[in-house]
Structures are given as structure tokens and as C-alpha cells.
Amino acid sequence: MSAPVLVVGEALVDIVGAAARRNGNGKPKATPGGSPANVAVGLARLGVPTELVTRFGTDAYGDQLGAHLFGNGVQLAPGSVDPGFRTSTATATLDAEGVASYQFDITWEPPTLSLTRGCPAVHTGSIATVLEPGAEAIHAFLKSVADQPVTVTLDPNARPTITPDPVSTWSAVRELAGLSDLVKLSDEDCEFLRPGLSPDHIAAELLTVDRTQCVVITRGGEGAIGVSRDARVEVSAPSIQVVDTVGAGDSFMSALIAGLHSRELLGAQRLEGLTSGDLHDVVDYAVKAAAITCTRHGADPPTAAEHTATWGA
Prior knowledge:
This protein is an alpha/beta fold. Helices cover 35% and strands 19% of the residues.
């Protein structure tokens, strides 16, 4: 078995009130979540060996998280389960179209970060990259692996309730992008971080950073665009009945990494050799993974078999 992809970031429990009310019981529904943890689960379900560096406790929520991660084949790095740590939560509110907004009760301080020999990729993002003291540890870690044969992917996943100042947040994103080969943003991230600018303008800004080779921007029901130094692709989203959007962006991210992994473009390759055709295919694969997640409650990414059964090989 190949060395696992390393995912670094928060694991928490999503408390989704509106989804539970739709089920008729009127009680909040607690489900495992956290953007990096969702990406790790999505990768494992798509058949990619995955290790998660995170931190959660051994309370009831922590036990729920542990069972979820282990049950989906995610390896946990040493120190990720800490009996003295209180497991973080995110309370999600769904609007009439099933789009989620969040309020967080979170502490983030990762265990020691290290790179496994042969690791093809490191992924990080979301709250873990902006909330101290963990954000500084992630930044230092990415700098320490800059010369290693590993591909770095970043999903900032802007959270205005955590970092309300878009100017300083964009500065932090730019700095992390300088240590990343691929950056994924959503249209909502773009609107918050760079209001008034088009996705292509924002992608062009990020591609001026020396290391960044590719920027992918999701556009909800309109699909996604992918921009590399040599190509631009646009992929439309399939028509689906949306239940909610919780975890859709994370499913997209995991499928994007899995698609690149299957094409052997990770590791020392650092996306070198990424053709327009490759870019289109991996973005299309990711759009369709996210679409499946939107048809069911919560952060529930598809397995490889479910993806194939729904959309074909």
C-alpha cells in the first residue's frame, strides 16, 4: 500500500437543527464534521490511503468522531485523540434551499506535525489555518516541507464568524498559497475575500505565486472552473434535488485530490504534466462527488463505487 495522503486540520461535530426538524423529531442532529476531517473521510471512501492530524477528546462527541473516522478507514496521527481535550462543535443553520451557515465552539492546537516517507500530498485548510495556536504550527510545517517531494493542497474555506476581516484573511490565504501547489476556493470564499472581483481574476492573482500551479473555484449549482498556468476549464454541475449543502465543498476537495492521485500527478510531480484534459476530468469528477453529497443529509461523501454507480466510470 502506498503512503497515505496527510490531512491536517479540525475534526468536530456538526449540530444541524434544521435537518432534524425536517425529519420530524424537532431535535438537533449531531453528525461528525470539520472540513479537514470531511476531506479525510472523502479520500478514504474513494480508496486513497489517508492519515488525519487533528485533535479531539474522549467525551461523547469525541467518541462519535473516532468511531466515524476509524469506521471509514481514516488513520489518526499520534496525539489526535486527547483525553484532556474538549471536542469542538459547529452549529449549522440551513436556509430554505438547504445552504448551511455555521457558528463555532472550537479550540485548535494540533499534535506534533511530521511528514511520512513517501507521502504524496499534504492537505490543509479551513479554521485550522487561521485559528491560533494551530495556524502558526501549520504554517511552519508547510514551510518545513517546501523542499520535500510532496504536493500541497489548500482549501481556505473562509469562515467570517472566525475571521471577520477579509483583508487580513486574504493576506493569510496569499501567504499559505505561496506554500501550496493547488488552491481551491468557493464562490462564497471569493465574495468574502475579494469582493467585486471575478473568479478568473482571483485565480490569476493566486497563480502569480511561485509555487501555485492550479486554482479551482466551485460555483455551487453552476459547477466549477479550474485554472492552471497553461489551461482553463469550466465544468457544469448535474441537475439534482438538493437536500443540503453540508460537506459538499469537502467532498469536492477530496475527489479533486483523489483524481490527481489516480493520475499520478501528486508527490514529486507537484502537478507537473497536468494537461487541460486531466484538469477537466478531475474537476468533473469532483463536481459529481459534491453533487452526490448534496442529495443527502450532512457531510456524507460518496464512495468510489457510489460515484461510479451514479455517474459511470
